[in-house]
TrEMBL record, chain A:
Protein name in UniProt: Polar amino acid transport system permease protein
A matching Pfam family: BPD_transp_1
MF annotations from Gene Ontology: transmembrane transporter activity
Major localisation: membrane
Chain ranges of the ABC transmembrane type-1 domain: 17-205
GO process annotations (BP): amino acid transport
Organism: Pelagibacterium luteolum
Family recorded in the similarity comment: Belongs to the binding-protein-dependent transport system permease family. HisMQ subfamily.
Lineage per the UniProt record: Bacteria, Pseudomonadati, Pseudomonadota, Alphaproteobacteria, Hyphomicrobiales
UniProtKB/TrEMBL annotation, chain B:
Source organism of this protein record: Pelagibacterium luteolum
ABC transmembrane type-1 domain boundaries: 21-209
Localization terms from the record: Cell inner membrane; Cell membrane
Protein name as catalogued: Polar amino acid transport system permease protein
Domain of life from the UniProt record: Bacteria
Gene Ontology BP terms: amino acid transport
Length: 218, 223
């Protein structure tokens, strides 16, 4: 009556990890580009830009990721693009990551001592030189640990793409469970695979945090 | 773009959305209370350095924090019945949310407990306070005061995460949206309104938390 749970089923679930990784990579790349724009807008001298970035962050941090996915998924249809879970998930997770990384990186930019900014003013550096040569390189160093931490959250977030029908690790697990009805084995395997992806990153983030704390201790 | 927006299905079924929002609030508040009750003893065990217990707590925290909530709730709702543990959808949702927030809160409470100066504890001992009094008045309360902002933003994040429980047909706000959407096909309008409702809920939670923070963690001496 049911399909048996054998090596093929395990392989199907394991191979779905690549879609989870691909979606995470796309969302992280897009989110990094969007995040740097949001972070710069958030600390910009231009007031409307600051307000726009603040509103963007508030909206994306104040609403569920699942609703963001639904709105992009059904919203694409309104613009006549048609229903495509892969595109919708990539766009929604990119916007989501932009807001979170924007807020994290804003904090890192503001953590650079203001004397650095003042010194670059005194040296007559313009906005572009000040940001690209003085502020951002120092902010980047501070940002590594929290960014890796967010990457874990993003990988876990890609599981929600399964609800709009994108076949990644969680959806692959559901499909195999529906065919074999071995929920204990299937979801243990799915959880273990996520754990293998996320745990090393979590440990790495903690290690970086510890090293950073030692480096900045006075 | 020649799409006709149609908000009539949302307005006509608004009572369902209100009911869903109430379930979302119930689940979130319930999970916050149970999660805190899980977090305090777990954080105490971890900081006290009781080896096997601290190890168990670590396993719990790492497993929960490194797997998606969606997989956790699938495990609780679909896999546990194979071991003879059965929940209806809303109970499964409450259990999953509590277990999830408990792990995150444990780490936050632990950081708070570790921020307490050892000298405070020694002063408590010198004053003749008993162990549980020291834990409650000298360690826990100042620790909670320190970590309150971090804890409450975790709780707001939990409330937003609770939308995922609609995936196991619990009857929360997101599920109310799924029902209206599948009956009326006004998907975008329905989810737009629901997203706005979640936003209002998050503002409400954050307002409520700052009110509670101001009253519960006031220092006893007036300035």
């Amino acid at each position: 009556m049911f399909r048996t749970f054998g090596p093929n089923e395990v392989w199907y679930i394991v191979m779905a990890v690549q879609w989870t990784l691909l979606l995470s990579a796309v969302a992280f790349a897009g989110g990094a580009a969007g995040g740097i724009a949001i972070a710069l807008a958030r600390v910009s001298p231009i007031r409307p830009l600051r307000y726009f970035a603040l509103a963007f962050i508030r909206v994306f941090q104040g609403t569920p990721l699942l609703m963001q996915l639904f709105l992009v998924f059904f919203g694409l249809n309104i613009f006549g693009v048609g229903i495509n879970p892969w595109v919708a998930a990539a766009i929604a997770l990119t916007l989501h990551a932009s807001a979170y990384l924007g807020e994290i990186w804003r904090g890192c930019i503001e953590a650079v001592p203001s004397g650095q900014s003042e010194a670059s003013w005194a040296l007559g550096l313009g906005y572009r030189d000040r940001m690209s040569h003085i502020i951002l390189p120092q902010a980047a160093k501070i940002s590594v640990a929290p960014t890796v931490g967010f990457l874990v959250q993003l990988i876990k977030g890609t599981s929600l793409a399964s609800i709009i029908g994108f076949v990644e690790l969680t959806r692959a697990g559901q499909i195999i469970n529906n065919a074999t009805f071995q929920p204990l084995t299937v979801f243990s395997l799915v959880a273990a695979l996520y754990f293998i992806l996320c745990w090393p990153l979590s440990l790495w983030a903690r290690h970086l945090e510890g090293r950073f704390a030692i480096a900045t201790a006075r | 773009m020649n799409y006709q927006f149609n908000f009539a299905p949302v307005i006509n079924n608004f009572d369902q959305l209100i009911y869903g929002a109430l379930i979302t609030i119930q689940l979130s508040v319930g999970a916050i209370l149970i999660g805190t009750l899980i977090a305090i003893p777990c954080a105490a065990a971890k900081t006290a350095g009781i080896k096997p217990l601290a190890w168990l707590v670590n396993v719990y925290i790492e497993v929960i924090r490194n797997t998606p909530f969606l997989v956790q709730i699938f495990f609780i709702y679909f896999s546990l019945p194979a071991l003879g543990i059965r929940f209806d959808p809303n109970t499964a949702a409450l259990v999953a949310l509590s277990v999830n927030v408990g792990a995150y809160a444990t780490e936050i409470v632990r950081a708070g407990i570790e921020s307490i100066n050892r000298g405070q504890v020694e002063a408590g001992k010198a004053l003749g306070l008993k162990g549980h009094q020291i834990f409650r008045y000298i360690i826990l309360k100042p620790a909670l005061r320190t970590i309150y902002p971090a804890l409450t933003s975790q709780f707001i994040y939990l409330m937003l995460t609770s939308s995922v429980v609609s995936a196991i047909s619990a009857t929360d706000l997101a599920a109310a949206g799924n029902n209206i959407q599948s009956a009326t096909f006004a998907a975008f309008e329905v989810y737009l309104v629901i997203t706005a409702m979640y936003f209002v809920l998050s503002l409400g939670f954050s307002g409520l938390f700052s009110f509670i923070g101001r009253t519960a963690f006031r220092y006893p001496l007036a300035r």
